[in-house]
């Protein structure tokens, strides 16, 4: 059995699981959303890590099916996420292949209609390199998604080849500082400088800024002092099943 056949069967058999990792506001620690991440619960092999099938799915184009599955699940769950959940924003990762699919906005519109959820409740995370593969086509799709009301975020910011000129032209709302800069910013002076400069750049462009890979209270406090808007990382919450995330949202601070 090839991996592609197995992946197709995984979708049909319902072996994929939606996991959510909390995103918190740095000023008061409230949960404001989550990043959706896919997991594969294989009937024999157990939990298969995404690193073992996402790159393959990207090469073969099957990622388009996975992306649509993740967005559909996120839309389906959005309503039942508990008190105050109406304001939660769920972020879904898009890959290069998704940004080359001119039908993508139509497919997403159908999902919104099916689950009766507003586009504003979702954000799409795109890496710089995914955009740079075919900037003109990517830009056309991103413009359309933005017009529909979706939020857009630049993922792994600072690690790809992009130009600030594109950042200006893209209809983005948010920048996510890559975890490689955040994780050790309390001990590495250069990392702290990059994080501080990125926060300033984002704010000067009128964008929200999220720090990924927050693994300690020390880093959380530094980010707060630097005026970063949101944080995501193991210190606050790992990616978790939807039911667990619903309890996480309702917990007392
Ligand atoms: O938790 P984490 O182990 O989920 O994910 C490992 C890698 O797999 C990360 O680079 C992450 O971006 C990627 N990944 C996880 N879920 C998805 C998804 O739904 N879509 C895409 N494109 N990538 C994902
Ligand atoms: O590639 P992307 O940034 O979309 O994927 C997020 C990845 O980062 C997932 O694999 C997720 O599990 C992982 N992640 C999230 N928070 C942390 C963290 O605090 N530390 C580490 N090491 N990884 C994290
Ligand atoms: Na992401
Ligand atoms: Mn990232």
From TrEMBL:
Annotated ranges, domain EAL: 1-253
Q: What is this protein called?
A: EAL domain-containing protein
**Natural source organism:** Piscinibacter koreensis
**Organismal lineage:** Bacteria, Pseudomonadati, Pseudomonadota, Betaproteobacteria, Burkholderiales
- First and last residue shown, out of the full length, are 534 to 786 of 801
């Amino acid at each position: 059995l090839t991996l592609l056949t197995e992946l197709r069967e995984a979708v049909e058999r319902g072996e994929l699981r939606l996991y959510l990792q909390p995103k918190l506001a740095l000023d008061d620690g409230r949960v404001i959303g989550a990043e959706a991440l896919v997991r594969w619960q294989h009937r024999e092999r157990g939990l298969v890590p995404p690193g073992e099938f996402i790159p393959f799915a990207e090469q073969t184009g099957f990622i388009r099916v996975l992306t649509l599955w993740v967005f559909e699940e996120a839309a389906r769950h959005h309503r039942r996420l508990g008190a105050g959940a109406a304001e939660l924003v769920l972020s879904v990762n898009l890959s290069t292949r998704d940004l080359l699919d001119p039908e993508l906005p139509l497919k997403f519109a159908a999902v919104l209609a099916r689950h009766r959820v507003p586009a504003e409740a979702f954000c799409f995370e795109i890496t710089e390199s995914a955009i740079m593969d075919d900037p003109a086509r990517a830009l056309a799709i991103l413009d359309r998604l933005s017009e529909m009301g979706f939020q857009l975020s630049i993922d792994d910011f600072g690690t790809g080849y992009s130009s600030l000129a594109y950042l200006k032209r893209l209809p983005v709302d948010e920048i996510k500082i890559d975890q490689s800069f955040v994780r050790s910013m309390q001990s590495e002076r250069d990392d702290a400088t990059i994080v501080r400069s990125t926060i300033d750049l984002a704010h000067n462009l009128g964008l929200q800024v999220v720090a990924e890979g927050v693994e300690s209270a020390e880093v959380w406090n530094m980010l707060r002092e630097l005026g970063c808007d949101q944080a995501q990382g193991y210190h606050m919450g790992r990616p978790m099943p939807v039911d667990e995330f619903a309890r996480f949202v309702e917990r007392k601070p």
